[in-house]
Amino acid sequence: QVLRKSLQRGFVLSAGSFLVYEAHKLISGFAEVHASFKVEEVIEQADYLYGSGETEKLYRLLVQHKNSDDAELLWRLARASRDLAQLSSTSAEQKRQLAYEALKCAEKALEKNESNFAAHKWYGICLSDVGDFEGIKTKIGNAIVIKEHFQRAIELNPKDATTIHLIGIWCYSFAEMPWYQRKIAATLFATPPTSTFQEALRYFHMAEEADPNFYSKNLLFLGKTYLKLNNKKMALLWLSKAKEYPAHTEEDKQV
């Protein structure tokens, strides 16, 4: 009887523990689902604000999630931080702070998901921005790493026109590089990175083919590159398109 009672008691306790465990699993499951819905909602709001050109509101929304482990949120925060830094109303000190903040977010996004193409793209962009504050030697020294991240982004998403454009900018910058910067590059690399305006032009056209009229700056650089190649007729065509592009952002106005 003692044994039977002990076994019955054990069964009741086991059953109770099992029910508690199952309830915990159920609650945890709901919590996880709720959390995922919340992330999706924030991303949806963020993309709406980005599309509307609401830079400051977008930053305020995303900075609340700077400790998130979600790569999609983190690279969007990196982009928002950078966009805020680009505004003419942002002070020089704020620009610097935001540039480093953006790089940190992009780096964390990569740590959380190395297969996220946008994390690679924004890491490359933000690393380039930080070079503006650390001097030409650092900027040139980071050039190979930046290009590698852009190329990885294209591998992960071959249709992303913006990343293709960014490699075009990379090529244009090295094609246009003055002699003293070439000298710095020669001290940093056994084989310094080089490019041509023809190579830059190829990437700008590839970007346009991937997504026609997607970015005012791509139109501008098509015009500028044709000018470098002494083709004024084609330069006028693309510069006219850049001029007529609807200005949604601060950058569009600058273009």
Automatic annotation (TrEMBL):
GO CC terms: mitochondrion; mitotic spindle pole; spindle microtubule
By what name is this protein known?
Regulator of microtubule dynamics protein 1
User: GO MF terms on file?
Assistant: microtubule binding
Please indicate if the UniProt record lists Cytoplasm as a keyword.
yes
Tell me one Pfam family matched here.
RMD1-3
Q: Which UniProt keywords apply?
A: Cytoplasm, Cytoskeleton, Repeat, TPR repeat
Record-linked InterPro entries: RMD1-3_a_helical_rpt, TPR-like_helical_dom_sf
Q: Name its species.
A: Oceanodroma tethys
- Keyword set includes tRNA-binding: no
Q: Where in the cell is it found?
A: Cytoplasm, Cytoskeleton
Tree of life domain:
Eukaryota
**Upper taxonomic lineage:** Eukaryota, Metazoa, Chordata, Craniata, Vertebrata
Report the sequence similarity comment from the record: Belongs to the RMDN family.
N-terminal signal peptide = none
The annotated subunit structure for this chain is: Interacts with microtubules.
